[in-house]
Amino acid sequence: MIRAIVMDIEGTTGSIRFGRDVLFPYARRRMAAFVRQRGEDPAVADQLAATRELAGEPEADRERLVAILDEWIAADRRVTPLKALQGMIWEEGYRRGDLTGHVYPDAVEGMKAWHAAGIPLYIFSSGSARAQKLLFAHSEAGDLTPLLTDYFDTTTGPKKEAESYRRIAAHLGLAGHEILFLSDVVDELDAAAAADFHTTQLVREAGMITGDHPVAASFTAVRLPES
Ligand SMILES: CSCCC(=O)C(=O)COP(=O)(O)O
Ligand SMILES: [Mg+2]
């Protein structure tokens, strides 16, 4: 029996293009002004300190920090301080009405059906938990947060390491084989399978790299394992 479903965001619940063409450029355009204006806020200052530490540049001033963060955005580094700062910038964007979270209609339909069937739904994404909540709260389909029980991000661990999935299972109080993980990325699915999770790969575009996992073109094609 599947007792929980854990979902990736980019390429799974929503399109990769939304991150690449909308969210990431939005944060990139605003990062310098955000660091200048909000750099003293404790939550921002903590992430700037974490950026200095991760970059190995304890003396980095604000200008240098913005340059480091810009390099990380360009390289699509999925590191916690960048993801936390991006989340804070997106929060402003959602509140201003500049941003609306993209969620595939089939993902909305699948999430509603599983929720109605009593299966708790979780997100595991590189985006910060706060950014994840915002995306689903301000989605094109309205506020989807009532469908979601909890959110995991890189503070739980990298998505390509089995230990992260063992931590999620322990947090949920479930065995790996009671959990289904949905993602578009084979390395993430391999890591989840190594933690004994059931897996399904969302293959939403032709030509994607696939592995040894069941595949589904949409949430409506996802089959829940019986045992
Ligand atoms: C609200 S998360 C926005 C997208 C993002 O920042 C990201 O890193 C998505 O990563 P995923 O693990 O969902 O592919
Ligand atoms: Mg993904």
From TrEMBL:
One of its GO terms (biological process) is L-methionine salvage from methylthioadenosine. Its cofactor is Mg(2+). It is an enzyme of class 3 (hydrolase). Its EC number is 3.1.3.77. Binds 1 Mg(2+) ion per subunit. InterPro entries: Enolase-ppase_E1, HAD-like_sf, HAD-SF_hydro_IA, HAD_sf. It catalyses: 5-methylsulfanyl-2,3-dioxopentyl phosphate + H2O = 1,2-dihydroxy-5-(methylsulfanyl)pent-1-en-3-one + phosphate. GO terms for molecular function: 2,3-diketo-5-methylthiopentyl-1-phosphate enolase activity; 2-hydroxy-3-keto-5-methylthiopentenyl-1-phosphate phosphatase activity; acireductone synthase activity; magnesium ion binding. Pathway: Amino-acid biosynthesis; L-methionine biosynthesis via salvage pathway; L-methionine from S-methyl-5-thio-alpha-D-ribose 1-phosphate: step 4/6; Amino-acid biosynthesis; L-methionine biosynthesis via salvage pathway; L-methionine from S-methyl-5-thio-alpha-D-ribose 1-phosphate: step 3/6. Keywords: Amino-acid biosynthesis, Hydrolase, Magnesium, Metal-binding, Methionine biosynthesis. It comes from the Bacteria. The keyword Magnesium applies. Bifunctional enzyme that catalyzes the enolization of 2,3-diketo-5-methylthiopentyl-1-phosphate (DK-MTP-1-P) into the intermediate 2-hydroxy-3-keto-5-methylthiopentenyl-1-phosphate (HK-MTPenyl-1-P), which is then dephosphorylated to form the acireductone 1,2-dihydroxy-3-keto-5-methylthiopentene (DHK-MTPene). Monomer. Belongs to the HAD-like hydrolase superfamily. MasA/MtnC family. This is Enolase-phosphatase E1. It comes from Modicisalibacter ilicicola DSM 19980.
